[in-house]
Amino acid sequence: MGTFKVLVCDDEPHIVHVVSAKLKNNGFEVVTAGDGEEAFATAKSEMPDLVITDYQMPYLSGLELCARLRNDAQTSQIPVIMLTARGFSLSDEDTKETNIRKVLPKPFSPREVLACVSQILGEPLTANSSQ
Amino acid sequence: MSDLQLKPWQIDEPLVENPSAEPYDGLGASDDAAPAASSRSPMRAPGWRPRVNFSTPLVILPIVAATVIVWFIDSATFAGDSGVAVWAKGVIALLLGISGFAASWNAMVRRRSLGGVLAALEGLANGHKDIATASSLPRDLRPIWTAIERHSERIGEGVRELSDMQRKLQLDLTLAETHRRRTLAVIRAMSEPVLVTDPFDQILLANPAIEELLGFREEDVLRKGIDGVIKEEEIVRTIHETRSADARAADRRRELVIGDRVFLIATAPLNPAQNKEGSEGNSVVTMLRDITREHEASRKKSEFVAHVAHELRTPLSSIRAYVEMLVDGEADDPETRKEYYDIIQTSAERLGRLIDNMLNISRIEAGTVRINREPIGVAMIVKEAVDMMRPSAEEKGIELTENLTPAMYQVDADRDLIYQAVLNLISNAIKYTPSNGRVSVSTVPQEERNRILIDIEDTGAGIPKEDLPRMFEKFFRVEANKKMAKGTGLGLNLVKKIVEDVHNGEVLLKSEVGVGSTFTIALPVVGR
User: Fold this and answer.
1) pTM for the complete prediction?
2) Predicted ipTM?
3) Which residue in chain A is spatially nearest to B308 when comparing CA positions?
4) Which domain holds residue A119?
5) Torsion region of B80: left, alpha or beta (phi above 0 gives left; psi -120 to 50 gives alpha)
6) CATH topology of domain B297-368
7) Cβ of B317 and A12 within 8 Å?
8) Is CATH 3.30.450.20 the right assignment for the domain spanning B190-290?
9) Which tens digits make up the pLDDT trace of B406-420?
10) In 3D, which of B65, B37, B46, B181 has the Cα closest to residue B122?
11) Domain B371-528 top-level CATH class
């Protein structure tokens, strides 16, 4: 099991910073993006094993980013963890056509993020496509 | 009225001829409605004149005299004096002639006088009471005439009583009709749609507002069942429930959306307990109240809460995450720890500012803000705000300049609130100006209007013309500029409230897309 690469995307620099620090401290390789457009481009070029993204972002929302990742043959298998600042949970309808595996409400705990990442990446990769 | 053929002369005042024609409107007497009380002058019966009375003795006397004379003649004849007999016979003949003439004269006079009585009676029947008086009639007819007159008086009194009663009833009817019409007019004038249905769910009344809303005309739907007329199921269901429900379970409330308007369906039963006759049964009054604005306000409030929650959660997320990192020992070196502490501090400050903004707005709106007015130097406050914002400007690579008038212009103001307003505008200018841009803050006295202007000019994104009027609305944000920075949509609203509501000043805005914006705070000067 080599080093996993995680893409962290949020328009709030502090959030990107703290999530990256937590993951890096625990042996993950991290790439970052400040908005949805940038995240999609980075995902294509870096091919991360997992994407952590905010829901509410300028240019391209977290959900739109997920849909785009799913629809691109190159990135369609990448699992996603969604962070939401708003107090709502995403409906099944919202997540059906995406690879969202976990939704974490803000304020979140970096510990919890790390646990989720480890859990998802520890599962067999085939599980991704069955979602 | 039709059964009782009242004649104009039988009452003292004109009557309302037709009760339903012209109801009393409360504005003027109904004189116009009185019938034409034409020709009230008494009419004389034709061919009748008061006569001298011929009494009975006048007729009897010649007959008695003739009898005496006949008896005398018989005596004389017995005596055999024929000269006397011839003379006596002549006298008898004369007396008999006079007597006959007197009798026929009397008969004729009597006939004529009876004719006069009949004519007088006819006149009386036609209402000409003053035609005859008892004294002008033959003595033997006088009691009859007097009796007739008395009877006629009594009838007259009865008629007067009846007509008084009739007039009172008429008035009551007019008043009742007036009330009915007024109530109807009120219901029709109401902007709220109103519908009244009977116990069989048939329509008794539909005012113009409901006609317009539901698209039918009252005259087409009267006495028709609501099921066939009203498409809106919520209304039909609510009326059904209200009609069949126990009287105590009145007042049902259900909402109804028609187009972009929201209505509250309020119904109430007209139950038998409230209606003595019980004829109404459970008729139902339905009123639709337009609550679109309340809905909009409620929606905005929810939006506000969502905005606020989001804005509060962002710095809170940072604080929680970094504290946890420190607790978990994720920051080994002092440098990283210092970085984390700084972030926590910045986030906490941001949280504080947000809460201040919100509280200030709500306090100003509620009129409970505590204002400490004192003469303060404008330049000093502006300088403080500029200095406060300088680090953020530098961080973003924005040149922040100040050009403050040296003179000590003073305004009578609350230091904290004015500072907050200026800070908000400078912060906005930095937020919406790209790197390498420029933000300049200056104070300019406007002597002719005795006020001082605080200009905050930027080389930022600018505001589209159509958005300018809405810039100071709560939660309004320029769609095109949303991506540049996060905001509560409250900052400018607060500035306007502080300057205009609290300090009688003015906030001005000039902007051009792609060139930049200038926000100006104008405050009345109290001294220098």
Assistant:
1) 0.54
2) 0.87
3) A86
4) 5-130
5) left
6) Helix Hairpins (1.10.287)
7) yes
8) yes
9) 767 889 999 989 998
10) B46
11) alpha beta
